[in-house]
Amino acid sequence: LIWKPPPFVTGRVPCYVKGYTRRFAQFSHDHRGTPENPGLVVTLVPNSEWLKLQGADEYPSRLVWGVMYTIDPNHSEEVHAYLDEREKDGYELMEVDVFVVADGQERCNGKSSIYVGHVTNPSFCGPSKLEDLATRIHKSVGPPVPTRHEYLYHLKREVEALCLEANDPYLTDLEGLVKQLDQTPHSST
Is 87 a catalytic residue? Predict the structure, then answer.
C-alpha cells in the first residue's frame, strides 16, 4: 500500500508499527505470479510467529515503517471492499497501534488497520535465502505490474523516502541481488 495507495485517500502520514517483520514470505497466485508459477509479495508477519521459524533471516526488525492513510468517510466501505480484494491471498485484517516521530519523540498516533500474513495462511511460504527470493522475484510475472521487479523497486524507494530511520537493509540487499540478475547475460523468465 505504500507506493500504490487505495482510492479516496485524503491524508497520508509516515508511521511505523511494532512487533512485526516485513518480508517477501507469501506466494502470490494472482498479482505477482500465476497459479502455476506463484510470485512473491511482501507481508507483515507477527514477530511472535516469524522468530520461531527455522531459517528466519539475519535482518532483525524492531519497527516496520509504512504509511497510514486517511480515507474519505463517504467511500470507506468501497475502499474496504477494494482492499479486501487486493489483499485477498491469505491476509488477515488487524487493528494495531501506529507510531510517529514528532519533534524527535515517539508518539502513538492511534489505531490503524493493517493486513497481516500469518504463518498458518495457505499462501505463506516462510523464510528463504535472499538469493532464492531474488531469483523468484526476477522470474515471476503477474498482471498488475508492467515489469517483474517494479513491485520491489517501488516498495524500497517509497520506504526510503519516508524518513532516514525507515531505511530497510533487507529491501536494499534484495533489490541489489535482483539488479545483479538483471545484469546477467541470458537472465530470462
Answer: yes
